[in-house]
Design goal:
Layout (H helix, E strand, L loop, with lengths): L1 H21 L4 H4 E17 L6 E6 L6 E6 L3 H6 L12 E9 L5 E3 L2 E4 L4 E2 L35 E4 L27 H4 L4 H12 L6 H5 L15 E6 L4 E6 L6 E5 L21 E7 L2 E7 L19 E8 L4 E9 L8 E11 L14
Length: 370
């Protein structure tokens, strides 16, 4: 009994150590893609929580078994594909193939998990997953004739599936992955018109596989255009009685951005935030035809405003243009002006897709882990 209790304590300690140390990250930041490993062992615990699901397994060793943690996708993504915490029973014999952790700890990415009976689990879809609804139709409009930024009355939905997940100057041809990592770091100069210091910072972040991202390490908000690059999407909540529009995020620390529509000055509020720089800056909006134009400045420097790690300073000034072209699509264009970081103003644009009939995903930062 004492030995069993000791094993449980060790398992718990191992899991606390591995999850509090990293948080959500690019796979290459934590796992060495050049070090593939295959493990065989027995499932001892499954932790079905944010930011990643972990399968803890006991692998035969000498003189005693070795405990390993297998990292999978998020619980939200696995659930959407039909998997659950009960998919893999405790005591099941499994074979795991993945990449080893860079820090030498007993962790491995769960590229594939195969049970003793030969069934692959936590990969692809488990059974038949109901198809998602697809939005169609013309631009929905409110009583004032302006395009609705959200659903029509009585409906639900959110914006997701961004066509671009990292900043890149319009017209540039550069290959990146979904996390914003360059296929070739030598392409850094093509991404944006950076000053030398900014280019050096950007290259360092890229070469470190974005592992020092403050959103991942310390749950800092994804200010600037980054809030519209996230996999879990966002919602607009229009509050005309308060002359504001809220932007709610499906991931990160789930705080909100406020966009004012009453033409107020972009300064702090008395007895409020004074003139302190903010993660989301101070935003004011106006309509130009069917396009909402948002002017934002007053940012701090405590966050990354791009998934790929492009730097910025407190001189950052953004002009964002949101144009809903039909029920399904919204075009986003951002003009970036930061004279302390970039040699000139530049633009980046992409689109979002309306996900009808679904609530905004609930993925939140836990214990300083996004």
């Amino acid at each position: 009994m004492r030995q069993r209790a000791f094993v449980l304590i060790v398992i718990t300690a191992l899991f606390v150590l591995i999850t509090s140390a990293f948080g959500q990250h690019t796979p290459a930041a934590k796992f060495d893609q050049s070090k593939s490993q295959t493990l065989k062992g027995t499932v001892t615990q499954i932790d079905w929580s944010n930011p990643y699901v972990h399968v803890l397994m006991k692998v035969a060793g000498n003189p005693r078994p070795v405990l390993w943690a297998v990292e999978l996708d998020s619980a939200l993504a696995l659930t959407a594909n039909g998997w659950s915490e009960s998919t893999l029973p405790l005591g099941e014999n499994i074979t795991v193939q993945g990449f080893l952790a860079r820090d030498g700890s007993k962790q491995i990415s769960g590229n594939s998990i195969t049970t003793g009976s030969g069934k692959k689990v936590f990969a692809g879809a488990n059974g038949t997953v109901p198809p998602r609804k697809v939005a169609s139709g013309p631009v929905p409009r409110g009583p004032n004739g302006q395009p609705r930024l959200g659903p029509t009355p009585g409906e639900t939905g959110y914006w997701g599936n961004p066509s671009r997940t990292s900043l890149l100057e319009d017209g540039a041809k550069v290959e990146m992955d979904a996390y914003g990592l360059l296929k070739n770091v030598s392409d850094a100069d093509k991404v944006a018109p950076m000053m030398k210091w900014a280019r050096d910072v950007y290259e360092l972040r890229q070469r470190n596989f974005l592992k020092d991202d403050p959103m991942y390490l310390a749950c800092k908000p994804p200010g600037g255009p980054r809030q519209f690059q996230q996999v879990y999407g966002f919602q607009f909540v229009e509050n005309p009685d308060f002359n504001r529009i809220l932007v709610l995020l499906g991931g990160g620390n789930r705080n909100r951005r406020v966009i004012y529509t009453d033409g107020r000055a972009q300064v702090g509020q008395i007895n409020g935030d004074a003139d302190n720089p903010l993660y989301y800056g101070r935003s004011v909006a106006k309509w130009e035809g069917d396009t909402m134009v948002v002017d934002t400045k007053g940012f701090n420097e405590k966050f990354w405003f791009d998934n790929g790690g492009l730097p910025h300073t407190d001189q950052l000034h953004l002009i964002e243009r949101f144009t809903r072209t039909d029920m399904k699509t919204m075009k986003y264009e951002v003009t970036i002006d930061d004279p302390a970081t970039y040699t000139r103003t530049w633009k980046s644009s992409w689109t979002f897709e309306w996900i009808p009939g679904e609530e905004l995903p609930y993925f939140l930062c836990q214990d300083n882990r996004p």
